[in-house]
Amino acid sequence: MNAPNGFVSSDALAVSATSVSPSASTGRRKKWLLVQPKSKTNLMVDSGKVSIPLNLMMVGTLAKKEFDVEFVDERIGDKVPDDLSAYDVVAITARTLNVSKAYDIADRARAHGAKVIMGGTHPTMLFDEAKEHADSVVFGEVESVWDALAADIKNNTMKPQYKAGAFKSMTEMGMPDFSIVLSSPNAKNYSFRVPILATKGCPVGCNFCTTPTIYGKSFRTRDSQKVVDELAVHQNRLGKKGIHISFMDDNISFKPAFMEELLSAMIGTGVKWNANISMNFLEKPEIAALAKESGCELLNIGFESVTPETIQYVHKGSNRVGRYEDVVANVHKQGIGIQGYFIFGFDTDTQRSFQGTFDFIMQNRIEFPVFTIATPFPGTPWFEEMKPRIEHFNWDKYDTYHYTYKPAKMEREEFLNAFIKVQREVYSWKSIWHRMAGKPLNWVWAVNVAMHYFTRRLTPQMFM
Ligand code: B12
Ligand code: SF4
What pTM does this model have? Predict the structure, then answer.
């Protein structure tokens, strides 16, 4: 657990669980515990070096101004205290894959007399389920509901749900306070990449994605100079220019003019960056050149599928399969690596989808291919469509590596065996050499070696 921000008074520490807020009579600042739960999934998510959690940092940055804030991240080895009665508020973030763990902590916190606030994708999507474990559930981003939420917490008048009528402009949002998370004794277990946000939302509208459900057609951007100023803050904090930045944006390139403005402003800063990016933005070679000039070292590209029917099925209008090879060539020409995401298991998929994906990856020498199983996340249009066919609602297995329903054109065994085979083939020594020979000897090579050994151990049972 982290040291708080230095404001905890001795009477705050002495408070025990009561049905009345312990701070009501003393007028002291209420005490918060922010919790990032570790999922119970048996696969690789939440293991190794994990990202610094921007979500809870944003919550903590606001909360710190008015409350005393402590933070624990179970993924890095922090422990949620057994006794939660010293806290007025326990604020927990959850995605689907860690929500059952979040509910365990929430139930314990309430039993100890704390008020529980839940936020994040899953509680946003399934308010009725989350409210059984929380006093308040925040829909979407905290910034847009903060004033009402903070006032209600102080007045002990918390409401079951906080949902903004309109989203706040990003120009009004401050910079996250990294001291909240980095003071953890386990902070060394975080990835060295600094998370940063330049935009919010993505109106592309893929039917399996939660973002359009939460943020609709909205797409907001920060002032690009503010983003560059934030980079400088981290460069000063870390004492070097060549820091590694991960943009956490849903789709940083949705408005190409903004992206070009941002990248131009980043030229000369010396940072190295990676981001989720739309394929169509990269169809122009000059954009990949601009990305390189501004410090891009890796692009996270959601190819999703090389089967045009699948792209149509998931409504991913930004992907044109016929242009994939040009996009890859544009990126590779600049010496930028590609982390390529591929999803299997949609109703349009057959054995041919696996072979086609393998061929595409090998021919185009994709450095870091990531394979996942199509997962209907609650709240998405596709979840509603699939609901009658979903075999279980064990949220611990909604990590995109578990089988949740039978694809229309493949039997379970056939599907899982093909899913394993493609991974083993892509990460065989021969294939790794073919894809990686001549590429910089960096962590991407190390990932390939680790994936080689990992994929040898895969069995169909692991995905069930
Ligand atoms: C960047 C990103 C990643 C990064 C970093 C993840 C990380 N640890 O932060 C990487 C690449 C590692 C990643 C991995 C994965 N991701 Co991801 N990722 C995202 C993405 C695009 C942005 C997340 C982000 O940081 N946004 C910026 C922050 C500031 O916004 P935020 O997280 O929404 O937080 C705000 C609100 O939600 C709210 N809030 C959040 N928590 C709380 C708590 C309280 C108490 C309150 C009051 C408010 C509150 O306020 C916050 C501040 O504004 C989201 C899409 C999205 N928009 O959520 C998908 C998303 C979260 N990822 C998703 C998935 C599926 C995964 C993976 C399983 C994929 C995989 N197979 O590897 C893994 C799981 C990793 C994990 N352990 O959680 C899904 C989750 C779906 C679901 N229902 O759970 C999402 C929603 C995308 C989608 N398909 O819909 N991801
Ligand atoms: S392009 Fe990415 S972020 Fe945008 S809707 Fe599709 S999956 Fe979601």
Answer: 0.93
